[in-house]
Design goal:
The protein is an alpha+beta fold and about 400 residues long. It has four domains: about 40 residues; about 130 residues, Nucleotidyltransferase, domain 5; about 70 residues, no CATH class; about 80 residues, SH3 type barrels (Roll). Helices cover about 25% and strands about 20% of the residues.
Amino acid sequence: MKVYVINKNGHFLMPCKPSKARKLLRDGKAKVVKRTPFTIQLTWDCEENTQPITLGIDKGSKTTGFCGVGNGEILISGHINHRTDVSKKMTVRAANRRQRRSRLWYRTPRFLNRSSSKRSGRLPPSIKTNIDEVLRVVKKLPLPITSVIVEDVLIDIAKLNNPQLQGKDYQQPNRLHENLRLATLLRDDFSCQQCKIKNTRLEAHHIQPKSQGGKETIKNLLTLCSACHTKLHAGKIKLKKSGVSGFNDQIAQRTMLGKRYLEQSLRHDYNFAKVYGYQTAYFRKQLGLEKDHDSDALAIATMKHGEKIDFHRHNFYMINFRAKQTRRLYRDLPVKGKGRVKYQVNKSSGGFSKGDIVLVKNKYVKQINSIYSNGSLAFKRQKGEPNSSGPQNCRLLERQSTMVFSSI
């Protein structure tokens, strides 16, 4: 475990061991500023000598993995769990706007008056929110990050059907190149084209065998599960498809949506670089790591120099996002006999708000999950610990944050 350190002027320093942090806190040379991840701030001016730290980011739509590497070890890693309710909320807001326009039928209708939706380079709110969450995490990580490496599209389209493969990465006569394999799986929607099964081990099959002059191109490959692939080579089944189309560029273009915005934002503050997804998969397999977002991020961060760093989750954090407040006053549909029902009934109690971290009865450190109508505070249910308590029994430790770190 690492304890993260901030200088007196707020600059991030290299993390230290818990034993050193205890001595600094005991001698009054530091104070606790954040509990998760545990971060202390020095109360005296010191030299700001730091080492290079590289942050690898495995960007995903629902979960993004990150891994910070420095001094030959993993300093921090984790998963960013993105919000998935943005599209739904935008749909509800659009329905409310249409309903309001129908009520105000006597007003002159206006069309194409939303300038923000017509400007050049605009991103959909769901994608922009997804990218902004990654940018917020990168800025909040308690490390002096110098370089950021992001995984670009999964495959390199320009080299799918190139017969003149060059470079050491392509000189692998004993196995199919990772770029082609992933492109085949992506084109076939990661499902077996024989039995249509998903969520299993998938392989790329040569429609025309290499022994019969078949080429290693995207048009000569088909996705099969391990069971169908074995039966096919054993002659127990026949292939349903005799040929497939090539690769549609739009598939890769959809994965690029928003990554240009991420790249432009990170280039301002860090040394930025990109890698392809197939390179990540190949290097991760060389390291002998299981497929996961943080293991992919480790491969991304160490691929450039070929470092082999021990993989662990001692400094692993799950990051979620919590709404600080809502502008919504009433629920969508009225209730019979009650009319319009307020959306948020219980307000802050005793100066506490939902999401605050408190010390309950001078013994338990808890996070407020909800506020009951009688004013008491509700916590996560754990055996042997209180599920709720009154404000008089709680002492505030840390105010709520819209970005919540939690350790495993």
